[in-house]
Amino acid sequence: MKKLISLAIVTLFIVSCSTVPITGRKRVNIMNDAEILPASFAQYEGFLKENKLSTNAKMTNEVQKVGLNISKAVDKFMRANGMVAEANAYRWEFNLIEDKTVNAWCMPGGKVVFYTGILPICDNTDGIAAVMGHEVAHAFAKHGQERMTSAYGQQLGGVAVALGTNNKDPKAKQLWNTIYGIGSQVGMLAYSRTHETEADKLGMVFMIMAGYQPQEAINVWIRMSQRANSGSAPPEFLSTHPSNETRIKNLKAYLPTAIELANKYNAQ
């Protein structure tokens, strides 16, 4: 019986293998968007009811305008590359929350939150685009769904199933918070190093497609490294995300490729 169960699990994971567009990385995702997206939208709605929207109309409008431009770039790519069903499933929304936490996140289906605390790190419109591109890239590449798939492998499937049944379920809410960095001081850094590096690259491509200056993706991480107490971060090999220095180096190296890809996709 154990062998049959193991074989079934292995088969399921093999069948569920796919490739991340643009980067070509192989991933395993057994989460069905038909279940995940409604739960995502419900969790997002619940979060907005429990948290204060920023009253700064100028910054709110800027975050929303940048989000709209980035989402149009992503939508254009998806429709030009055989991802029409996925593009149709997105329900883009961008909100600025009044909170000093240095954080931003994007849930499945294009539900984005920026915290006012991250705006000094963004510093300017192109910086907002860099963070926006990075967060949208997590949703585009289905990084959260990969983490949910991993949760199944760790015998947390029962909790994952609850995601699609009740957005007020405390276990489900906690899992969403953990996977997507909601309310976390390091929400935008919550994924694995592989996911973070991939989101950095995809985000740079998307921000260029949307007409923003990609150098700011590098500058964002320079400013992040200059934050107070940034020197207290754990060594990279003990961390779930690349060091600021590694990200800066990787983005500088990837910049020519990102420009080439963005030009290619904009011409489609």
UniProtKB/TrEMBL annotation:
Assigned protein family: Belongs to the peptidase M48 family.
Which Pfam families does the record associate with it? Peptidase_M48 (PF01435)
> Which residue spans adopt a coiled-coil conformation according to this UniProt entry?
none
The name under which this protein is listed is: M48 family metallopeptidase
Cofactor(s) required, per the database record: Zn(2+)
Q: Which organism is it from?
A: Lutibacter aestuarii
Annotated keywords: Hydrolase, Metal-binding, Metalloprotease, Protease, Zinc
Cofactor: record remark: Binds 1 zinc ion per subunit.
Q: Specify whether Transcription is a keyword of the entry.
A: no
Query: Domain of life here?
Result: Bacteria
Which InterPro entries does this entry report, sorted A to Z?
Answer: Mito/Outer_Membr_Metalloprot, Peptidase_M48
Regions that span the bilayer: none
The segment(s) forming the Peptidase M48 domain are 78-253
Listed Gene3D superfamilies: Metalloproteases ('zincins'), catalytic domain
